[in-house]
Backbone:
């Protein structure tokens, strides 16, 4: 966005201490937090819920720029962000590291699975992730576009693993997890598909795979886990990312097919978050035989896989998707909300609503106007609801434009 830097430089001109905010107050300007994230649109009344959120997140002040009143409004709901989270050089370094790591492990497997992954493989990866984490400024939003260009087919899994690794480390940072957990998410992301090294490149590179070949590929979580199971120098979380990243909340995942309660209780939250990242990366970066989605389309289609009581098929828990989108939603979508004002959505209750106003603080809890009940019958009178006031509620589906006109 052309005016991003201009916005970041100028928004610190007028400070509004949080303790002076009152419900019903309005400002003639867009209001931002100290990092330049838009918190409130111009002329929108402040709510007690917003004040409570600011206080509970220790946000001491908001800011506005008096010169911005005449500035042309951006797309509704956009949050202005700045530079890339990591440099291209760093990303190339991670790809190069991953390429040599995977190739060495593949070669070692021909000798003995017991020595395929060495202590040095793990330690060198960990120190690379630590230096990558040192490059991330946790106080800046920044943007990150998954690497999507493939030089050769051989690069597919290296680039895929690099994207998952970098986003894992980044999400750990955004969610302010402990340092060793951030590192483990980065290392686990880089190793998560390491079991693929037991599959021949001929099969991996084939565009139309047979069911037998797919079955062989689907063994990779278990095969990968067997390679690291006994290694004391690997973090337990890294091992679990390798083993469990293809489990799904509705029990249709593999290798175990845990059903929802089991999924929630037996799989660490960080592993479930890595599974979200793996899915996101798989949607925006594909083998040449399928069409990649853009980041917004990927995030919206993932929302449609979030559990709600009216769904039979789902993949993610709402609390996990909420954290994923809060941590990475803006970063991977060039600083923009993945939903828009006017979107037709379905709530966890099954009701259908129109999005009226989005909130950076809780992207799945906008202000909405409910237009249909949970049986999809039109309401005689539409009801406006601020979902921020009910944290138990959430958006669980978004209808794409073509579909939305069918439902209206
Ligand atoms: Fe995988
Ligand atoms: Fe993967």
Residues:
């Amino acid at each position: 966005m052309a005016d991003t830097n201009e916005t970041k430089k100028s928004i610190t001109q007028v400070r509004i201490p949080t303790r002076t905010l009152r419900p019903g107050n309005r400002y003639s300007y867009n209001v931002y937090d100290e990092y330049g994230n838009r918190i409130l649109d111009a002329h929108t009344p402040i709510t007690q819920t917003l004040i409570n959120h600011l206080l509970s997140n220790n946000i001491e002040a908001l800011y506005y720029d008096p010169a911005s009143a005449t500035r042309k409004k951006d797309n509704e709901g956009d949050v202005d962000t700045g530079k890339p989270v990591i440099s291209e050089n760093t990303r190339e370094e991670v790809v190069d590291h991953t390429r040599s790591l995977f190739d060495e492990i593949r070669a070692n497997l021909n000798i003995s699975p017991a020595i395929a992954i060495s202590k040095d493989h793990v330690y060198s990866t960990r120190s690379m992730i630590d230096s990558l984490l040192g490059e991330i400024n946790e106080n800046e939003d920044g943007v990150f576009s998954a690497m999507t260009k493939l030089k050769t087919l051989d690069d597919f899994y290296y680039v895929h693993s690099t994207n998952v690794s970098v986003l894992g480390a980044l999400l750990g940072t955004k969610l302010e997890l402990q340092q060793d957990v951030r590192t483990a998410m980065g290392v686990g992301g880089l190793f998560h598909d390491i079991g693929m090294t037991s599959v021949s490149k001929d099969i991996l590179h084939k565009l139309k795979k047979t069911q037998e070949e797919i079955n062989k590929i689907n063994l990779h979580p278990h095969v990968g886990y067997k390679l690291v199971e006994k290694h004391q120098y690997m973090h337990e979380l890294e091992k679990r990312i390798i083993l469990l990243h293809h489990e799904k909340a509705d029990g249709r995942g593999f290798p175990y097919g845990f059903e929802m309660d089991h999924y929630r209780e037996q799989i660490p939250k960080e592993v479930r978050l890595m599974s979200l990242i793996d899915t996101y990366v798989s949607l925006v970066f594909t083998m040449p035989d399928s069409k990649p989605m853009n980041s917004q389309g990927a995030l919206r289609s993932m929302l449609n896989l979030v559990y709600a009581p009216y769904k039979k098929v789902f993949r993610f828990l709402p609390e996990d998707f909420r954290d994923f989108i809060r941590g990475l939603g803006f970063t991977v979508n060039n600083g923009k909300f993945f939903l828009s004002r006017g979107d037709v959505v379905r709530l966890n209750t099954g009701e259908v609503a129109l999005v009226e106003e989005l909130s950076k603080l809780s992207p799945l809890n906008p202000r909405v106007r409910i237009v249909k009940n949970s049986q999809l019958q039109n309401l005689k009178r539409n009801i406006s609801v601020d979902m921020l006031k009910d944290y138990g509620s959430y958006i669980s589906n978004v209808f794409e434009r073509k579909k939305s006109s069918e439902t209206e």
